[in-house]
Write a structure and sequence with these properties.
The chain has about 400 residues and is mainly α. It has 15 helices and no strands. The chain folds into two domains: about 5-180, MFS general substrate transporter like domains (Growth Hormone, Chain: A, Up-down Bundle), CATH 1.20.1250.20; about 205-395, MFS general substrate transporter like domains (Growth Hormone, Chain: A, Up-down Bundle), CATH 1.20.1250.20. The chain has helices at about 5-35, 40-65, 70-95, 100-125, 130-160, 160-180, 200-210, 215-230, 235-245, 250-270, 280-300, 300-330, 335-365, 365-385, 385-395. It comes from Paenibacillus mucilaginosus 3016.
């Protein structure tokens, strides 16, 4: 896939973008903890600024991404993210640290326009049998930054402070945008903004998902998986403290085991991308993850817990790559942005519901009980793939492809 110029261009751009995001996120997080004396309200506002746009702008950004030329949209988003960094620097010097939340908010909003534009380009330029390999490659890149991003971001802030960190993040965003000038020119039909009615196109996107059985199935998968993730994510600390009797700092080792295995899993999927259908990849990832989550909730062994955490990390790329590949394969190019804009909030909304319920359920069921519920939800998510697997088998028997 790296032989394809478009893939190389977007990959190198996303590497710089991810570098800027991690430097910015950790600089802002650590700076806010310093100036507020670890005030949980202001620290939580950082997460709100980062995740709220996913609910508010995902479908809007996806709809505009379907209307606007992809190359110009991606370049504009990266440069606007950079501009927000430099604008915030002025506010930070002459005003209040609260402007840092604005930088996070702007960058998060821009990503809701940029990401579906990249998916459109993949759908337009990459052969169908290469999509899964491309998704695996980009998932591996994300996994690398999940391992090294926190360390790198914290190091730069601790060594140089908030202003150099934000300047460096802004430079990374500018560099990402400049690299994207190497993308192919937008086609003539995509060289200007579509003049149709925005609300009509948004409603068309919702109806499109409702009419496509494969996308409806993925909607259920997104919802069940998001709920399962939300139930366990806030309780990971208790695996270390309650189940293993360790200090809370032991959580970092669980996260490192997960992140390192995620990187390996992404590499394996890149190698096997053309041999495994995305339906099977997604179903296997969810069902085996269910077993891993169930074991994590009840394990009292440090070795077993680390192994299960690594197993879940290894399988996470299977889930993400399977879902993204299926979305691209079952969605027409004109609807890529809107489909992502509909499905992504299903996952995020379910995850927030799960996170909000996790503490209450732990008091009611115990830690192992909550992880068991999460495992059941992962298994149900895997079972939603059964109709698609049957369809794939039938198409293969008839000599077609799904």
């Amino acid at each position: 896939m790296l032989k394809h110029a478009l893939v190389r261009t977007i990959l190198f751009s996303r590497i710089l973008l991810q570098l800027g995001v991690w430097i910015r996120n950790f600089a802002i997080l650590l700076y806010v903890t310093d100036v507020t004396n670890n005030d949980p309200l202001f620290i939580s506002l950082i997460s709100v600024a980062e995740f709220a746009p996913i609910f508010l702008f995902s479908i809007i950004g996806g709809t505009f991404a379907d209307r606007w030329p992809s190359k110009r949209t991606m370049i504009g988003c990266d440069l606007l993210s950079a501009l927000s960094m430099f604008a915030v620097l002025g506010g930070l010097v002459y005003g209040s640290w609260h402007v840092l939340l604005f930088a996070t908010l702007v960058s998060s909003i821009m990503s809701q326009f940029s990401q579906p534009s990249a998916m459109k380009l993949f759908k337009q330029h990459i052969p169908a049998d290469g999509l899964q390999g491309v998704m695996a490659m980009f998932q591996s890149t994300m996994a690398v930054f999940m391992v090294i991003g926190p360390v790198l971001g914290a190091f730069i802030y601790q060594q140089y402070g908030i202003v150099p960190s934000l300047v460096l993040a802004g430079i990374c965003f500018v560099g990402s945008g400049l690299i994207l000038f190497g993308l192919p020119r937008d086609p003539a039909s995509g060289g200007r903004v579509t003049q149709g009615n925005f609300m009509t196109e948004l409603r068309d996107g919702l109806r499109y998902v409702g009419r496509r059985p494969a996308l409806r199935t993925l909607g259920w998968t997104f919802g069940l998986s998001g709920l399962a993730v939300g139930l366990t994510q806030p309780l990971m600390l208790f695996l270390a403290v309650e189940n293993l009797g360790q200090d809370k700092s032991f959580l970092q080792w669980l996260l490192m085991a997960n992140g390192a295995a995620m990187l390996v899993g992404g590499g394996v999927v890149v190698t096997l991308a053309k041999k495994l259908p995305p339906q099977l990849l997604l179903a296997a990832g969810l069902i085996v993850s269910a077993a891993g989550v169930l074991g994590l909730g009840w394990s009292r062994s440090m070795g077993l817990t680390l192994s299960l955490e690594a197993l879940n990390g290894f399988l996470l790329p299977c889930i993400h790559i399977g879902i993204n590949t299926l979305i691209l394969k079952h969605t027409e190019q004109a609807f890529i942005g809107r489909v992502g804009g509909v499905l992504t909030p299903l996952f995020m909304g379910s995850m927030v519901i799960g996170m909000s319920s996790a503490g209450f359920l732990k008091e009611f069921l115990s830690l192992g009980g909550v992880f068991s519920v999460s495992a059941l939800l992962f298994a149900l998510g895997g079972l939603t793939m059964v109709p698609m697997l049957r369809e794939k088998r039938a198409a293969a028997a008839a000599g077609g492809e799904v």
